[in-house]
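Sample entry (211 residues):
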Amino acid sequence: MNKINYNLKMEEIIKENRKKGLRPTLLLQVCCAPCSTAVLDRIKDDFEIDMFYYNPNIYPYEELNKRCETLRDLKEEMGLGGEIIFPENKKEDFADVARLRSKDKEGGRACYECYKLRLEETAAYAKDKGYDYFTTTLSISPYKNSTWINEIGEDLEEKYGVNYLYADFKKKNGYKKSIDLSKEYGLYRQDYCGCIFSYREMEEKKSQEKN
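Predicted structure, serialized as tokens:
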């Protein structure tokens, strides 16, 4: 089976909208400011973008606040219009995924469910508020499964009736660019995905390296 080029699909969508003279509204689920840098730089001229910070997996609470503040810093640094929307990030929302993740490693089935949790909340909000498109920054990371992310997005497009913007933002050196831009803007850059399990794995790795 041929692998789908999601980056090309995104470019085709953008090209078609340009032909029609459209600049649609987009609700962008953001996982963190550093990952958002290159994504926003890539698509900000083709969409009216609001950022949606729904990540109930983030641990500890202080880390959640730090990532929210860094996102505000990014908006100011890039001179972006649009809003940053901070819905309630209740840890209870992550409970079912956490039970799966406790028996799993990063990149396993629990991560699929975590992508779905965040994307579904985004799609539901996009439908409620009348956005033209929704998508996520998650695919910029080489540690995230872009096929899963886009398959989930496609399913949610059908379920909620809101266009999903297919993407694989790691293409065209997206991840490297996000690192470079993060340094340029002086952003706090975390060293773990976000959940308590990835936090523990990061601490364990640091301990092993130290020893």
